[in-house]
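Researcher: Here's a chain I'd like modeled. Treat it as a single chain, no partners, no ligands.
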Amino acid sequence: MEQEFVSDRAYVAVLRDGCVLQEHSVYAATPRGPGFGRWALPGGGLLPGESFADAATREAREELGCGVILGPVGAITEFLQQRTGERSVHLVFGARIEPGDEPRVPEDQPDDPDSGRVTELRWLAAADLPDHLAWLRDIIEGRIACHYELHRH
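Model: Modeled as a single isolated chain. Structure tokens:
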């Protein structure tokens, strides 16, 4: 059974010793475009009736193979479709790995179409974060507590 997602999304910025955990995900080619891979924060869409916090915890378990303890929201990104008024909100929670657990690339699950998408995990130092995550560097280094962006389309 295919899961229905809403446009809101939840992510985790798992921090340890001044580094953030990133996942490398591979996306298959579709009629809309070629396949590609990218490094990103773990996360994804909310299931119907699911809270942002529950989605972030579930996505971390699915994509990092471990449990996380959520901290405060570190970033809020709002997407607003000006023509229709539709809105989508993306939250990034700060997080840490549950004691006694360690992140690992999850095993492929034949019944899950998203399974096997995460191919690698890495800890990235704050100084090495890409420009689009500069706000996360500022949080890690204590310059800001939370980041907000608004994108109008």
